[in-house]
Amino acid sequence: MSKYLPLSQVSSTHDLTNIRLVATDMDGTLTTEGKFTAALLQALEDLTAHGIKVLIVTGRSAGWVSGLVSYLPVAGAIAENGSLFYPCGNETPVALTPIPDLVLHRQQLAKAFLQLQSQFPDIQESADNRFRITDWTFDVDSVNADEIQTISHLCQQAGWGFTYSNVQCHMKPLGQDKGIGLLQVLRDYFPQYTPGEIVTVGDSPNDESLFDELCFPISVGVANVREYTDRLQHQPAYVTTKSEGQGFCELAQFLIQGSAVS
Fold this sequence. Notes:
The protein is of the alpha/beta class. The chain has two domains: 5-96 and 176-261, HAD superfamily/HAD-like (Rossmann fold), CATH 3.40.50.1000; 102-172, Hypothetical Protein Ta0175, Chain: A, domain 2, CATH 3.90.1070. It has six helices and twelve strands. It has helices spanning 38-49, 62-71, 102-119, 145-157, 178-189, 244-261, and strands at 5-6, 21-24, 53-57, 76-79, 84-87, 94-95, 136-139, 161-164, 168-172, 198-202, 219-221, 238-239. Strands 1-12-11-10-2-3-4-5-6 form a nine-stranded mixed beta sheet, with helices on both faces. A three-stranded antiparallel beta sheet has the order 7-9-8. Strand 5 (84-87) and strand 6 (94-95) form a beta hairpin.
């Protein structure tokens, strides 16, 4: 059974009036049916106006993220599940996962994908894969839950990490995940914030490390995270009543109201 609590039942040990940074997933968490809404953009503006920074932590490609961080009112963005950090105002990414030879790395990923494809002919490379640096993706809709487990095991046997979201499956370097990348970025770029001033937000299995209470004691899942309750070892402490971007807006309003009385 899920232990998720609604925001209205925030524990006395988690004072959300002190939150100063929101580290959030993007697809299925900021988006609604795959799009940014006017309400979401307003929520991001409102958080900034109340002194609450937003940091995007996504599995999306370096190419996509380098553009998004230039347009959205955010403090920065982490791409490819913890591999690259794009600080606000800086077009050059910071490598969070050391890869000595990127050309060879891409060749090895391509070879590993072809081996998977020989066993699972239905999987197809994702459209944004050409804009990636450290991982290789294919669409999650092409596989079922049992096949995902088999693919995860095969990737581990071949020396690759694996995760998936509501959009894509990711083959990636071992040890590369959102939580590890976020901890490094927080240490190097936002050392002024304590764990009690940070909330992490997500909706699917590739956000699981953001829900690890030993690293991130205050975490929130938007309501659609309930679809993965039985697949998450680490689960969010709280859940919104609304799904996707509407759930994020619900959290944003909760934080803004709290900051006004703190």
